[in-house]
Amino acid sequence: MPLTPEQNAILDAADPERREALLAALPHIGSDFPEQDENGVDLSLIRAQLRLSPSERLRKSERKSRDTARMIRFGEKIHGVNLLPRNSSLRYVED
């Protein structure tokens, strides 16, 4: 499997000794990666989404929006600051 741009950047930035250790580890690490396209995009995630119906994808997205809004409101409560702009659609997501 070819290296992703991110993996190449890490190798390019490593000193020569570290680079050899990283290269030696890549075959093992690479076998744990899901199938990727030439840009490093995880194709299994795309396939999983396409197996869902449009309404299932919408429900999943709405759940994630609610969870995100809850976390943001919790952070605002803990820190006493507004983390979202007033016009953010997440501000109006109900629990």
Overview of this protein structure:
There is one protein chain. This protein is an all-alpha fold and 95 residues long. It folds into 2 domains: 1-51, no CATH class; 54-95. The chain has helices at residues 5-13, 16-32, 43-51, 54-79. It is flat and about 50 Å long. The model has no long low-confidence stretch (mean pLDDT 78).
How would you summarize the topology of this molecule?
Blueprint: H1 5-13, H2 16-32, H3 43-51, H4 54-79
SS-based class: mainly alpha
The count of DSSP E runs of length 2 or more, i.e. the number of strands, is: 0
**Main sheet, how many strands, which sense, barrel?**
none
Helix coverage percent of residues? Answer: 55-70%
Strand content: under 5%
The total count of helices amounts to 4
Gross morphology is flat
* Total domain modules: 2
Overall mean confidence score, pLDDT: 78
Poorly predicted spans: none
The whole-angstrom Rg is 20 Å
Oligomeric nature of the chains: single chain
Distance between the termini: 44 Å
Compressed to H and E, one letter per element, the order equals: HHHH
Summarize the structure.
With 95 residues, the protein is mainly α. Helices cover 64% and strands 0% of the residues.
